[in-house]
Specification:
Helix 8 packs across helix 14 and helix 9 packs across helix 14. Strands 10-9-21-20-19 form a five-stranded antiparallel beta sheet, with helices on both faces. A four-stranded mixed beta sheet has the order 5-4-3-8, with no helix packed on it. The longest helix has 39 residues. The protein contains 15 helices and 21 strands. Helix content is 37%, strand content 18%. The chain folds into three domains: 28 residues; 87 residues, Penicillin-binding protein 2a (Domain 2), CATH 3.90.1310; 302 residues, 3-Layer(aba) Sandwich (Beta-lactamase). It binds zinc ion. The site of zinc ion has 7 residues, from helix 10.
Length: 462
């Protein structure tokens, strides 16, 4: 009887000890998961740091293996071309680590040669097959072309492959040369928001590009939308509030209304569709949620129609009211229109740890039916043929929509131009914004044309 008691006691003791061990392991694992990267990169770690400076890092390359950045013997080395340095500054990062979405910040573990399973593998020969280099999907020459086309104006240009998700171009202006940082605090206006990558982290009033969202809702929810005629006198009073249009379009069909960007037709369409449905289509299009681009979260665009009635709802359907769009997120909506209604997740990394080349699509989601996407695409093609001018976009098979987003305060509107090339060999979608630039089609359109022509040339060389 006594023996049995002792054995039971011992068993209990062993059980308690094992439990403690398991609990300890769990606590360690949680701490490790959360903090291991910090431990390995702790500045006292002499392998990696000297005098608080990183000694050596892996190299950041563009999609074609063009050198963009590395730290060698404690000093930063950049591409030799100043235009390229400025163009990719937001993507690569500055020496102060101010661009929190940059490769130097977000992919620091990789560049430092650290990973969760293997620890600091750069200093372990057995693991030398693991690279600490980062290969971006960006084309540095295309970024340079886009940055130059913005010509000192504030704004952003993004281009991505709507079939693979690879971002080929991502520039944000103002920028600066990270090798010779200017006096930013001394020029607050010139360098306003310079540490923000506007493509990833900014939101803007969308203006008429939002008609692509309202149009999708209309195609799916208004019977015989194609046989309807709207009438535009240049303004429309709804319950005492005014909706205005850029011109008096007279009688106008749905298709013409998108091409001419008629506010009055789209005001009526918005009221017809209703706030709930419009809200639903905005959310399908990516509003009110952020996208993840290799661990980088985009800013959240906003559409909130809870209180929107009458003229407010009409203005919301025209992309004004309280609507806000993130450029990258909206670009992927346009990409989904191009890709039969399926949105491919965007990405900025072309490598993975073993092969250095990663071509697989990271995520896809159907956000529009194929029929709706096809119809919208035809209408966007018609916009170019009827209004923007096929001659301005020769050979691009361009489908597009402009936006001229009113921002108040006596400032010029933001100029938007979004769209895609309907070409099997160049499946690219894009978004261009010139802040306070004026008319979308005439100001942002030519930037898009320059960048896309260059993209066609570059893709054919690849
Ligand atoms: Zn009109």
């Amino acid at each position: 009887m006594n023996d049995l008691k002792i054995i039971t006691k011992r068993a209990l003791g062993v059980l308690i000890l094992s439990l403690l061990l398991v609990i300890g392991l769990i606590i360690f694992s949680i701490k490790y998961t959360k903090e291991a990267s910090d431990w390995a990169q702790y500045p006292a770690n002499k392998h990696i740091y000297a005098n608080g400076q990183l000694m050596n890092t892996g190299t950041i390359y563009d999609r074609n293996g063009k050198f963009l950045f590395k730290i060698e013997e404690g000093s930063g080395k950049y591409n030799e071309n100043k235009l390229i340095r400025e163009s990719v500054m937001h993507a690569v990062g500055d020496s102060g680590g101010n661009i929190i979405t940059s490769a130097r910040v977000v992919f620091a573990d990789r560049l430092n040669g650290w990973d969760f399973l293997n620890g600091s593998y750069r200093f372990n020969n057995k693991l030398s097959k693991f690279s600490s280099d980062v290969k971006l999907t960006l084309d540095a020459d295309l970024c340079a072309t886009a940055y130059k086309a913005l010509n000192g104006r504030k704004g952003t240009v993004g281009v991505y492959n709507y079939k693979t998700g690879e971002i080929l171009c991502m520039v944000s202006s103002p920028s600066f040369d990270p090798m010779n940082p200017p006096d930013i605090d001394g020029n607050p206006e010139k360098y306003e928001g310079v540490y923000i990558n506007r493509f990833l982290s900014a939101t803007y009033t969308p203006g008429s590009i939002f008609k692509l969202v309202t149009a999708a809702a209309a195609i799916d929810n208004i019977d015989d939308i194609d046989s309807k005629t709207y009438h535009c006198e240049g303004n429309l009073e709804i319950n005492g509030k005014l909706v205005t249009c850029m011109s008096s379009h007279g009688d106008i069909t749905f298709k013409e209304a998108l091409a001419e960007s008629c506010n009055i037709a789209f005001a009526e369409i918005s009221l017809d569709v209703g706030a709930n449905t419009l809200q639903k289509y905005a959310e399908k299009a990516g509003f009110n949620s952020s996208l993840e681009v290799n661990d980088i979260k985009t800013a959240v665009g906003k559409v909130d129609l809870k209180e929107a009635k009458g003229a407010d709802l009409a203005w919301a359907g025209i992309g004004q009211y309280t609507d806000l769009a993130n450029p990258l997120n909206f670009m992927t909506y346009v990409g989904a229109i191009a890709n039969d209604g399926v949105r491919i997740s965007p990405r900025i990394r072309k490598d993975n740890i073993l092969s250095n080349v990663c071509t697989s699509v990271t995520g896809k989601k159907r956000i529009l039916s194929k029929e709706t996407a096809d119809k919208l695409g035809d209408m966007m093609r018609n916009d170019v043929m009827q209004v923007y001018g096929e001659n301005n976009y020769k050979g691009l098979e361009l489908c597009a929509k402009s936006g001229t987003a009113e921002v108040g305060n006596d400032k010029k509107p933001h100029a938007w131009f979004v769209g895609y090339m309907d070409r099997e060999d160049c499946p690219l979608a894009f978004a261009v914004i010139v802040e306070n630039g004026g008319l979308g089609g005439t100001v942002a359109g030519p930037v898009a044309a320059t960048v896309l022509q260059k993209a066609v040339d570059l893709l054919q060389e690849e």
